[in-house]
Structures are given as structure tokens and as C-alpha cells.
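Input C-alpha cells:
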């Protein structure tokens, strides 16, 4: 399997679980959290949270930075953007183009002015 396909599979697998999506949401709202900070918001044991975070790290969705004795977790939006570019954007372009054409047609030449 090509590297791109394997990486994409890891991202989809990581994001398939609602607990991992919650971790990403938590990091989106406040980037650079410790495991303890993340566990305060998650309804699971520390060991389970660590397993979910490890999957996100392996998918390159989270990066880790050591600051002294603290291990900080940061969201990496690049893999999500790559999935968007490869799988979502091409479908959205046609739909957005259609909506733009429909808007133009409904508004007529006066662009909605009355």
C-alpha cells in the first residue's frame, strides 16, 4: 500500500472513535494540554486515555512536546486538512458551484435588489 494510503487509513481509523474526536476537540479549544488536563475532561481511566492518545499520535494528529517534566499534547491539523483536500473538497466544489449558480439565477440580474 502506498504511504499516502497508509497514512490516510491511520487518520480515518483514529478519527472514527468518538473518544479520540473528543480529545481533538479538547486540544482544539486549548492546545498544549498535559495528559492529566485531558483526563479531567474525558470520562475514562488514565490508561484508556493514553491508549487513545497514542493512536492519535501514531496517526500524526497529535504531536508531543516535553517542557521540563511535563508532556504537552498539541493538535496537528495537517492530516485533517489532507483528508479534506483529498476526500471532501472535490465533492464540495460541485455543490458550492451549483449553489452559486442557483443563487445567481434566483436573484436575477439585479443581484437581489428590489
Amino acid at each position: 500500500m502506498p504511504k499516502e494510503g497508509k497514512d490516510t487509513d491511520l487518520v480515518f481509523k483514529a478519527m472514527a472513535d468518538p473518544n479520540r474526536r473528543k480529545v481533538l476537540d479538547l486540544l482544539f479549544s486549548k492546545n498544549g494540554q498535559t495528559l492529566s488536563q485531558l483526563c479531567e475532561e474525558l470520562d475514562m481511566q488514565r490508561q484508556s486515555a493514553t491508549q487513545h492518545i497514542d493512536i492519535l499520535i501514531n496517526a500524526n494528529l497529535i504531536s508531543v512536546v516535553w517542557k521540563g517534566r511535563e508532556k504537552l499534547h498539541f493538535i496537528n491539523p495537517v492530516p485533517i486538512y489532507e483528508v479534506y483536500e483529498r476526500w471532501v473538497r472535490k465533492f464540495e466544489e460541485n455543490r458550492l458551484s451549483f449553489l452559486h449558480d442557483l443563487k445567481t439565477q434566483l436573484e436575477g440580474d439585479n443581484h437581489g435588489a428590489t
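Strands lie at 62-67, 70-75. The helical segments are 3-15, 18-29, 35-41, 46-58, 78-107.
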